[in-house]
Structures are given as C-alpha cells and as structure tokens.
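Repro:
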Amino acid sequence: MNHTRPSGQGGADPLSARIAALRSAMPRTPLVQLADERLDLFAKLEFSNPNGSSKDRSAFWILKRAIERGDITVGSTVVESSSGNFAISLASFCRALGIDFVPVIDPNVNASTEAYLRMVCTRVEKVTRRDASGGYLATRLERVRELVAATPGAYWPNQYANTDAVEAHHTLTAGELCDALPRLDYLFVGVSTGGTVAGLSRRAKEAFPDVRVIAVDAEGSAIFGRPPRVRRIPGLGSSMVPPLVREAVIDDVVIVPEPEAADGCHRLLRRHGLYCGGSTGSVYAAIGRYFEGRALPSRPTVAFLCADRGQAYADTIYDPAWTAEHLGTPPPPATAPATAPALAEAAPAAPAALDGFAALSG
C-alpha cells in the first residue's frame, strides 16, 4: 500500500473516537428470501448500508485499520481511484472523520455520483485520457500516484491490493451472511477489485466447506484472462487482474455480457421489486445462466449480494434510450408479476488460488 505519514501530527485519539462512532452506526444488512421455482434464493441487501452500497464495508474497515496503525492522522488527505460506490463511501466517511478526500474519477462515472462527490469533496480529479486497454483505470492510477507524491500527508487506500478490504468482507459481510443461514450450497459474488469475493469466499468456505463460490465478471473485463475491452456499466470488471482476486477461493466463473446485466436489473425490479445497480443485475443474470438446464436433485440454498441501489443508474441501465444506444438492445417488455409474493420472509436474524474453475460465456 502506498502512503506517507504526516510528520508532527499526533493525536489519533479524535479519529479513533470518530471511527468508533461510525462503527456503532453500521447496520447488519437484511437477508431476504426471493421467490424462485427451483432455488432457495437469498439476497443480502447491501444497499441498506449508510451510503447505499457494499463498499461501505471495505471503505470503513480500510480507514479503521489505517487509523489504528497511525497511517491516517488528523492531517491526512486520502486519495483514491474510484468512479463509483467506493468513492461515495470514502467521501462520506472522510467527511465524518474530518479529513480530506480527493477522488480520482473518469468519464464513466454516473452523473449523480459525480455531483455528490463534487458537493462533498473540496477537490475532485477527473481524468479523460484513455489507457492502452481503452479504459481509464491505468490513467486514474497514474494520477493517484502523482497526487500522493505531491500531497503532504497523503494516504492511498489502494482498494485493488489492500488486504484490509478482504478482512472487511470476511468479518462483516460474510460474517453476517453465514450467521443467518443454516446452510449454503452456492454463493454468487461479483468481482471488481477482488476484496469482496476474497473475503466472502474464505468465510463461506470456513462455515460451509462444501459451498461452491461462483465469481461473476463482466464481458470486456481482464480479471479472468480475457483481453480488456471498453465497458459501459460501472461496478464489475477491471482492465487488470487485481492482486486481491488471488486471495479468493473460487470454484466457477460466469461472464455476463452487458445487455444481460441490464436485463437482470429489470427482471429483479419487475419480479422482486428490487431496484438495484448494474453489478447486482449481472449477478442475478449469472444465477439464471448457471442453473439453466442444470439437473438439481434438491432445492439448493443460493445467496448473492444486492450491492447497491438503482438510482445512480436511472439515466443508463433503466433508460430504454440509453440501453438501445449503448448496449444495442432495449430492455424486454414488462412481464407479468410473480404469482407468489416476490419477497419471502426474512431469513432468521441475523485457501486456494484460481485453479479448476470453468468460465461460462455468451
């Protein structure tokens, strides 16, 4: 992790008190059962976090650990590359902690996300030059390094390589999930920086040794060995292989084209009343693809995360004109509602590398 410690700036106690107050406000996110013909399907509603996404878990935990180590003090400036939920989480938490945050974003950022960041942060850096892959990740990271070098007391969380993110999801997200379920046969997890899939997969394997962990990636992502291509839906995928992905215990991979991700979002909304973002739509589509035509001797217990809400995607995934222009196809017409209630009652209160998996692709 790249960071510098500010000199002559003691007094971590105020930050310790503030981070403790943030921890007390972090909820246990709900786990609900969704109606399904063949599966006992559970969705963990991570959009119930304070800032509306699962990235609250990793952002909070990374800041907590950095404060405990003294890497962040009252004079620090946090600098990070993110055009999505991680930036929102860091912006909110840094504001509550009383420290500066500089997000480095790119043109793929949702309009509402950029507007929020510009309201909350005194400085926002937006890169516009594409990198060799046709995306912006390498350009963003280059700018982060420049800012860290030029900013006294800068701290770079480096969400792609910081193992505190793995610990966050192992302890918080997966801990709650495993405590709430007496059984788990399949766990579907979207992959971007790798911290979520690493933390969830390891904790799930500890609690349920026979569980199969299915990683879900976007078509056009380079994470699982495919050449990177331009992607239009933020949330999943990367133009590089994040080091944290190698910390995960993965059994299978499903690659989801972006039109299917948009379709998954619409089906979640129409059938279950869940207004979710692009990564969740991808995971929901992957579940359908994975079990299609698969013989199931009994009803397996399947879980996935609803990583964020759909509001930030109102002008993209949920706009028929946008999907027609950018994804080549409008969403399907509305379907009849499910005959049974979409949301069943809530669930009771609540190490290997990447070997041996097979990628499913369209």
